[in-house]
Amino acid sequence: MFKLRNKTKQPFSQNTKNLEEQQTILSELDENIKKYKEIFGDKSDFSVRYIQGDSFKLAIVYIASLVEKDILDQHVIKPLNNQLQQSTDTIDKIILSTNKIKDLTNQEDVIKHLLQGHSVILYDGKTMAYAADTEGGERRPVSESTTETIVRGPRESFNESIMTNIGLIRKRIKTPKLKVNKKTIGKESNTSIAVLSIDGIAKTEIVEEVITRIDKIKIDGILESLYIEELIEDPKRYTPFPTVFNSERPDRIAAGLLEGRIAILVDGTPVALLVPATMGLFLTSNEDYYQRYDISSLMKLLRGFCFLLSIVLPGLYVGLLTYHQEMIPTPLLVAVTGQREGVPFGIAIEIAIMELTFEILREAGIRLPKTVGAAVSIVGGLVLGQAAVEAGLVGQATVIAVALTAICSFTAPSYNIAITARMIRFILLLLSAVLGAFGLIFGLLFLLVHLNSIRSFSVPYMSPLVPFHKEDWKDLFIRVPWRYMKQRPDEITNDNQNRKR
C-alpha cells in the first residue's frame, strides 16, 4: 500500500560545490539582477542603473533610501560614462572617484554592502563586483543637546550617524593613540558599533573585557544603545543603580576617554556609553570643568546634598511625625499638626499619594508634546496640590515636603541616577512608615553596603571612597584648581596616570 522512496544523498563535496555556486557572483549580469530583485523585492527601493557599450554591459545596483544620490551621480555614474565615451569596446579597469572601492567575490558580501549604503557595480561576464562607498540618506544635523543643557561650554551633541559621532570625538582628541574598534551586531539589523579607547591610558584588561562581552552578544537587532548597556552589565548581581554611563555630549565622552574609560558608540542613536562607571561620574556635570573651581565646588556640594535629600526627605518626614515627634521643636510641631486637622489619611499614606501623583504628572509631562508638556506638569502640580489642601485631603507641610523632594531630584546631572533615586525613595518611605527613624537608618546602611558590593567592569562603584584613593578626592566632593589635579583616576587608568607635568 505504501511505497518507500529511496533518497540518494549527494556526496559532501557535491553539497559544498552547490553551496559555493549559490554564493559566488554569477557571470551572467541579468541572472545576478534577477536574484537581487527576488531578495529585496521587485517593487522595493532596490534600484538598477545600466551602462552599456558596444561589447560590454555594466549595472550599478543600490538601495535608493540608503545612498547619497549626489555622490552616486558625480563619483560613480559620471566617471563610468566618461570611461564609456573614451572606450566603447571594453572597460578593463573600473576607475571611480569615491573615497573607498572594494572588490567583492560572493553574493553575501554584495548584499551586506548594499544594506550599508554602498553602490555595487556588476560586470557582465565577470564573477566579481565592485563596491563604491556612497553611504548617505537623510540625517539629523549636529545640534545642541536638549537633555544635557549647560550655561558655558560646547553646544555640539551626537546625532544618529556613527561616523559623525566618531568624528566629533576625534575633533577633540587629535592623537593616533585613540583606537577605534568597529563591530557589527544583530543578526537582522546588522548594527555598527564602535569601541573607543586611548592606548596607553585605558587599562588593557578592561578594554579586552568590554570587547569580550560585546562579542558574546547574540541578538536579532540593536535599535538603541540601551540594548548594549543591559547586555554588557554584570549579570551576577541585580542593582537599581546604573553601572554604564550614557551621554549625548561629545565633550563628556572625550573627557571620559582622557581619564582612561572606554566609550561605546552605536549607529542609529545619539546616546553613547562610557565604562567603567562610578557613583561620582553620575553626580558630576561637565560644566564643573568649564567654571571656576570655587563655583564648581559649591555646585558639586549642592548637587550631592540635594541628591541625598531627594532620597531621604519623604522617609524622614514620615518617621519624625509618626514616631519621633519629640525631636521636632514644639512651635514647628504645633504648626504642622494643626494643619493636619481633619486629614483622613495617615502621614505615610498622605506622602505616598502625593509622591505617586507627582510621578504621574512628571510622566505625563514627558509624553505630551513639548508645547503643552511643561505647562501640564507645572499647572497640574499647582492646581492639584492647592485643591488637595483646600479639600482637607493632605496637609500643607506634606505638599512642601513633596515639592522640595521633586526639586532636589531635578538637580541630578544624569537622568538615570535620578530615576534610581525615585525608586529608592519609596523603599525608604515604607521602612520609615513601619519602623520610624530606625527603619530609615537601616535602609541607608543596607544601601551603603549594596553600593560597596557593586562593580562596573571590575572597578568598585564607590571608588575612590572605597577603596580609598587620596589623590582622586580632589575631584570628588569638590574640584580643586587644575594645577593640583595632576593624576587620572587610579582604578581605571593604566600606568600612565600623570595628565599634567
Tell me about this structure:
- The chain is elongated and about 105 Å long.
- It has a 5-stranded antiparallel beta sheet with strand order 1-2-4-5-3, sandwiched between helices. A 5-stranded antiparallel beta sheet has the order 6-7-9-10-8, sandwiched between helices.
- The longest helix has 30 residues.
- The chain has 3 domains: 118 residues, no CATH class; 116 residues, no CATH class; 170 residues, no CATH class.
- The N terminus is likely disordered.
- It has 501 residues and is of the alpha+beta class.
- It is found in: Cell membrane; Membrane.
**Cα-atom radius of gyration:** 31 Å
Uncertain ranges: 1-21
Total number of helical segments? 16
Largest sheet: 5 strands, antiparallel
Q: What best-fitting shape do the alpha-carbon axes yield?
A: elongated
Order of helices and strands: HHEEHEHEEHEEHHEHEEHHHHHHHHEE
Strand content: 5-15%
Helix percentage: 40-55%
Mean pLDDT: 84
Q: Structurally, how many domains make up the residues? A: 3
Span between termini: 93 Å
Salient structural properties:
501 residues; membrane; five-stranded antiparallel sheet; Spore_Ger; 12% strand; 3 domains; UPF0353/GerABKA_families; 16 helices; alpha+beta
